[in-house]
Design a protein that fits this description.
Chain A: Pathway: Lipid metabolism; sphingolipid metabolism; Sphingolipid metabolism. The complex is a heterodimer. In chain A, 39% of the residues lie in helices and 13% in strands. Chain A is an alpha/beta fold. In chain A, the strands form three sheets. Chain A has a seven-stranded mixed sheet, sandwiched between helices. The longest helix of chain A is centred in the N-terminal third of the chain and has 28 residues, at 48-75. By secondary structure, chain B is an alpha/beta fold. The relative contact order of chain B is 0.10. Chain B is elongated, with a radius of gyration of 35 Å. Chain B has helices at 19-38, 42-55, 57-85, 93-102, 115-126, 169-182, 197-210, 222-232, 247-255, 268-285, 310-320, 342-345, 350-353, 376-385, 387-390, 397-412, 415-432, 435-440, 458-465, 469-481, 490-510, 542-561; strands spanning 130-131, 139-144, 149-156, 214-218, 238-242, 259-263, 293-298, 323-327, 356-360, 370-374, 441-443, 451-456, 512-513, 515-516, 532-535. Chain B is built from 22 helices and 15 strands. The chains are: A alpha/beta, B alpha/beta. The interface between A and B is large, with 133 and 118 residues. Bound molecules: pyridoxal-5'-phosphate (PLP). Pyridoxal-5'-phosphate (PLP) sits between chains A (214-216, 219, 240, 242, 292, 296, 321, 323-324, 353, 355, 363) and B (219, 391-393).
């Protein structure tokens, strides 16, 4: 594998960020009105036989897996060494725990962790990979394939090797180097860091912010700074692993509520305030509500207005992880607060990452100044871990400045309007073709349901043959039967790219019997089975109209 | 219930049955008979009951009561469960509302109370140097305390980029070339197209350089341990850890769910004794399967600069069949003739001596991120089972090519590593030979460590601040037992302030930046006391370093005798 051969600059640019083909293909998002904000998502469900087939599919896979384990351990000890005791040592992982991975995921491992090279922009260059022993070992024949990229979290298209952001990063390498010295409190703070913190705080509308070099670790090492076992965390059941790890590390008690169910949440809060800590029944010291702004597997938003109402009513604190929504959503990219038109000051802690919309790396936490000051003293990350390196900071600053219009005025707005249009177009298009799609109208994450686990590799491979890179996800990231493909939209795609995508998804969907839409979640409550040409003809205009979206 | 509706059933006469029972059971049977005969397949049940009653009416009675009890048990279970869950008295709605109204949470974090206290607790923030307009290098310009203080051309003895190789032009060129081809961010986790060829290449290069089968990259060094250990441990597994491991490892142990035992810092007798005990215990318990067992320690200790005695550890781990986990965040690139870390220092082979090595690319290698070295099974499993790997975006491409380049440089030419080791030794012996300094301070680090830790002598600590390591730890343990997490211990705070005065005085008088060992007391779960840390980097000359050391010692002596 090597760095891609030189390409002529225009092609290279187009491959990373397609030029807008027509100003029709833009959409300005507006703040939701209260009617829309209070809508409950309507989830479409597949016919019963699909559910049944899915379970059957798993059953067969599991039975076959157990048979293979049974004989494998007896007759092929060498290749099962990883799950057997060896030489007095326990195996690294148990047979039972690793069953799902070894026997189910391994078979379709070619659909995951596909190696790539170059910029993950409008197109992504996948490195070809072969396996002759069921994905245990891959060989690389050295070819690459350029695929349409619907897999990277490159929401605003800032993954670029040219342009303002890249030159800012290059300048930072020259001026600041690449090393970061040591922990923030020891030596690792530079003026770039202060500047980034200032900018992100202003951007999200909080007094102060703190930045970290990894989004996962931002969450994983956050909660132990201010929670202990006498505090309670009420957490959405679908929260990201980083949040759960962080809460576990803090030792706080955790209660979860069903994803997005505000009535259950209210009941839970009331119960918990009345009952207090288990055994002692003393009141909780603090109650923290933890939610994500945009759920990356569902495409759904948290119900922020209701959460704020509850938080105020019951004196709880509110933590919102905006990893996927910051930059990508809202009229000016300021995330869920802006979509719902709520004051960011009403959310106690806003967290987000720079890995997604900003094309950089790391995470931030934004709060009131007095809270941040305290956290700087009490959090482990600034005192023990590496800070964000200068080129990444430069990328964050430049992309933020582009979004707010300080660099290249107009470009940021165009990026925002493009992702809004693209997301809506693809979402409505898929729905009209007859697929079951989850999530909010403006969400750049568009999950499309496949159900049967065996359709995942089929879909992923067929799309790869058609030069489209997609992400398929299954249990444990989703409920068991709701295997899905997740399209991540990007501003870098043109309307024509989405046409191409729709045509192929439609074709593949027909073959794989994926058009299962029952009309339950479509605007007119009728089964949708549009012809692809009609979809391409009418959807670009229709998708700008809210009336075609129920969620 | 012995019964009679169909006259031909015989009732044993030896036991008289009260007529009430006979009457009610007849009635029950009558209705049951009627109901059942209407159901499809009901007649099978009827004929079964009839037949059974004829053979043995008491059996029917027992069966019927069992069924009734089953129904009763089933119905009563939810109530029982509720009873277990809450012993809440039956409250009326008003009572609940008033309870909810009354509840006052604590502030989200401890608020600053007044100006004086604010100063007392927040002095640490005003001491953070903010480097202006250039990167980390040998000489730095910085400001502190909101631009109130500013310093220029200060000799930097506080950095962790020991080798300083990533400052060189050729390495920076690599970084720029990569950014020009890959941009900055990878925009996705490894599983979802975030794994670029450069990541694969670096994993391969690192594994080859350090002589292990495989490697796995992480986004941040601090997050590595706390993700690797929990990926492989579960309830019932055993971890034996050094009692001075750094906070990153402490977090990992806390998340591991396993039973954790501690042995005395670097004390192999203590370790062997513990392993022997555990061995006995295991033999007694006679478990169905062997639990996973780990010895956990650090290469160069973060808190003291000590080196772990690897040969003895390896011997013990082999004898007792433990796996050895070593956090080499500070020792890779530093120890060993060619910078290959702890095993090289002791002429051992990494792949056969250490099972899990955690390394950092942000310390000696001067880039960002962390990694884990080990055998293929282990590395592959991390790719699917380690949270910080699976649920976090891949590193920016340029960070990997930078490390790749640095490894190549180190492979071809180990002079930088040797130079660093020479400086470390010089620094250590220079401090160690000073009698007056040694009256006040212990040097806890080894001569191989580029970070020199100066810890106040216990007697001086008692004399000056009125507390000792032991009293501090008892106090902390007490707080922990009472589950109080807001820790403020005044004597400890005073010592930290004193150390900061030393740092400030060295800075103001000699233009040299050293630092306190920055720890967060409330997060530490193992005994720890404040210390000063002075770190040298390979970019310094011996003269520069020695002059600086002389100045540092003079200042310390002056402040300690004052
Ligand atoms: C909700 C949420 N929080 C945190 C993260 C972690 O961010 P990073 O990839 O920067 O480590 C993610 C990334 O997937 C996420 O989805």
């Amino acid at each position: 594998m090597c760095i891609g051969e030189p390409m002529d600059p225009h092609t290279k640019r187009e491959n990373e960020y397609g030029t807008l083909t027509d100003s029709k293909y833009l959409h300005q998002v507006t703040t939701m009105d209260s009617e829309m904000a209070s809508r409950r998502p309507i989830i479409d469900t597949p016919p019963y036989y699909i559910t049944l087939m899915t379970y059957l599919n798993y059953l067969i896979l599991i039975i076959l897996g157990h048979i293979r384990d049974f004989f494998g351990i007896r007759f092929q000890q060498k290749s099962h060494r990883d799950i057997m005791e060896y030489n007095g040592y326990a195996p690294w992982y148990s047979k039972f725990e690793s069953f799902y991975v070894r026997r189910l995921k391994m078979r379709i491992d070619d659909c995951f962790a596909r190696p790539t090279t170059g910029v993950p922009g409008r197109f992504i260059t996948c490195v070809e990979r072969l396996s002759h022993n069921h994905n245990e070992i891959h060989t690389f024949p050295g070819n690459t394939q350029t695929c349409l990229n619907l897999s990277s979290y490159n929401y605003l298209g800032f993954a670029e090797s040219e342009g303002e952001c890249t030159s800012a990063a290059l300048k930072a390498v020259e001026k600041y180097g690449v090393q970061s010295g040591g922990p923030r409190t020891q030596i690792g703070t530079s003026d770039l860091q202060i500047q980034t913190e200032r900018m992100i705080a202003d951007f999200v509308g909080k007094e102060d912010a703190m930045i970290f070099s990894m989004g996962y670790s931002t969450n994983a090492n956050f909660f132990n700074a201010f929670l202990d076992s006498k505090c309670l965390v009420i957490s959405d059941e679908l929260n990201h692993t980083s949040i759960r790890t962080g809460v576990r590390l803090s030792g706080a008690a955790v209660r979860t509520f069903k994803h997005g169910d505000m009535d259950l949440l209210e009941k839970l809060i009331r119960d918990q305030i009345v009952m207090g800590q288990p055994k002692t029944n003393r009141p909780w010291k603090k109650i923290l509500l933890c939610v994500e702004g945009l759920y990356s597997m569902e495409g759904t938003l948290c119900n922020l207005p209701k959460l704020i109402e509850l938080k105020k009513k019951y004196k709880c604190y509110l933590f919102v992880d905006e990893a996927h929504s910051i930059g990508a959503m809202g009229p000016t990219g300021r995330g869920v607060c802006e979509i719902f038109g709520v004051d960011p000051k009403d959310v106690d802690i806003l967290m987000g990452t720079f890995t997604k919309s900003f094309g950089a790396a790391g995470g931030y936490i934004a709060c009131d100044k007095w809270v941040i000051d305290r956290l700087r003293l009490d959090m482990t990350t600034p005192n023990y871990s590496e800070p964000t390196p200068p080129p990444v900071l430069a990328q964050i600053i430049a992309s933020l400045e582009t979004i707010i219009g300080k660099i290249n005025p107009g470009e940021g707005t165009e990026r925002l309007q493009r992702i809004a249009f693209n997301s809506r177009y693809l979402r409505l298009g898929l729905q009209r073709l007859g697929f079951i799609v989850y999530g909010n109208a403006d969400s750049p994450v568009i999950p499309m349901l496949l159900y049967c686990p065996s359709k995942m590799p089929a879909f992923s491979r067929m799309m790869l043959q058609r030069r489209i890179a997609v992400v398929v996800v299954a249990y444990p990231a989703t409920p068991l039967i709701e295997s899905r493909v997740r399209f991540c939209m990007s501003s870098s795609l043109t309307k024509e790219d989405i046409d191409y995508l729709l045509r192929h998804v439609s074709e593949v969907g027909e073959k794989l019997f994926l058009k299962l839409n029952s009309g339950k979640s479509s605007y007119d409550n009728s089964i949708q089975r549009w012809d692809i040409e009609d979809v391409i003809k009418y959807t670009p205009e229709d998708c700008k109209n809210n009336k075609f979206f129920v969620n | 219930m012995s019964d009679i509706t169909s006259g031909h059933m015989a009732v044993p006469t030896a036991i008289p049955i009260p007529s009430v029972i006979i009457a009610t059971s007849s009635a029950a049977w009558f209705y049951l008979h009627q109901g059942l005969s209407k159901l499809p397949g009901g007649h099978h049940v009827i004929s079964y009951i009839e037949k059974a009653t004829q053979d043995d009416p008491y059996r029917t009675a027992v069966e019927a009561s069992l069924i009734l009890y089953g129904i009763y048990y089933y119905l009563s279970k939810p109530q029982q469960k509720k009873g277990l869950q809450s012993n809440r008295p039956n409250l009326s709605k008003q009572e609940i509302d008033s309870l909810i109204d009354e509840w006052e949470p604590e502030p989200i974090v401890i608020p600053p109370i007044n100006d004086k206290e604010t100063q007392e607790t927040y002095w640490r923030l005003s001491k953070i140097p903010i480097i202006e307009n250039h990167g980390i290098s040998k000489y730095i310009d910085f400001t502190r305390d909101d631009n109130k203080e500013s310093f220029e051309n200060v000799l930097n003895l506080a950095s962790n980029n020991f080798l300083s190789l990533s400052e060189t032009e050729e390495v920076l060129q690599v970084a720029k070339d990569t950014i020009k081809n890959y941009g900055v961010g990878a925009c996705g986790p490894a599983g979802f197209y975030g794994n670029q060829d450069v990541h694969y290449n670096l994993e391969y290069t690192l594994a080859e350089f350090f002589g292990t089968e495989s490697c796995c990259l992480y986004g941040q060094d601090f997050a590595v341990s706390s993700s690797v250990i929990p990926a492989f441990t579960k309830r019932g597994d055993v971890i034996v850890a050094d009692d001075q491991v750094s906070l990153a490892v402490q977090n990992a142990l806390q998340l591991s769910r396993s039973t954790v035992y501690y042995f005395q810092h670097n004390n192999m007798e203590s370790l062997e004794e513990l392993l022997e005990q555990l061995n006995d215990q295991e033999r007694k318990e006679n478990l169905p399967a062997i639990p996973r067992k780990f010895i956990v320690t650090e290469g160069l200790f973060h808190n003291s600069g000590d080196v772990a005695p690897l040969p003895q550890l390896v011997e013990l781990k082999r004898k007792y069949k433990y796996r050895l986990f070593v956090d080499e965040t500070l020792s890779l690139g530093v120890l060993g003739n060619t910078g290959r870390g702890l095993p090289e220092q002791f002429n051992l082979d990494r792949s056969t001596s250490i099972d899990i090595t955690v390394g950092s690319m942000a310390t000696a290698f001067g880039s960002s991120g962390g990694f884990v070295l080990g055998d293929t099974f282990m590395s592959e499993y991390q790719h699917i089972g380690s949270n910080a790997y699976c649920f976090s975006a891949s590193l920016p491409a340029y960070t990997t090519t930078v490390v790749d380049k640095i490894l190549h440089i180190m492979d071809n030419d180990n002079s930088t590593v040797l130079n660093l080791q020479k400086l470390s030794r010089t620094m250590f012996h220079f401090f160690n030979s000073r009698v007056q300094l040694n009256e006040y301070f212990n040097i806890t680090s080894s001569e191989f460590s580029p970070v020199l830790h100066l810890e106040l002598k216990e007697s001086k600590r008692i004399e000056r601040f009125g507390y000792s390591k032991d009293t501090l730890f008892t106090e902390l343990a007490n707080l922990q037992k009472r589950k109080i997490s807001d820790v403020f211990i005044e004597p400890f705070e005073n010592e930290e302030i004193f150390l900061q005065q030393i740092v400030d005085s060295i800075l103001v008088n000699h233009n040299i930046l050293i630092s306190r060992h920055t720890i967060v007391l409330k997060q530490e779960t193992l005994p720890i006391v404040p210390s000063l840390r002075i770190s040298c980097t390979a970019s310094m000359t011996e003269d520069e370093l020695l002059t600086a050391c002389e100045n540092i010692i003079t200042t310390i002596n002056k402040l300690c005798t004052a």
